[in-house]
Amino acid sequence: MAIMKSVELKGLLLTCTVAAVLGALVAAIVYFSPLKETTLAPLVNLVLIIAVFVGGSYVAKTRGSRGLIGGITLGIMFFVVMFVLTLIFSPSLPGFKSFLQHLCICLIAGGLGGIFGIGLSS
Question: Is 0.70 topped by the overall pTM?
């Protein structure tokens, strides 16, 4: 059981790393290109999808079984970490629509990444 948790923690670390790197890349692209800041929200959602998908794939590939559960678990863990960081660093509370949207993105991307990761494990 301890091995399973360490795999999920490694997946969470991978997800956070991918999100940070892609977030910095998107910020640099928006800053240095003629793109408007209104395109930032869809790009942030894309970064979230890619990061959670990669983490879910890693967890499912490493486990070799129960990819959907592993991916959804990773999505929930990443959402909780990001929500706590938002509450710590943001002076205002996030809106309910945004909360549900990001929760659904994390669950769906994690589940799909988990399913994809099972295909990679064999």
Answer: yes
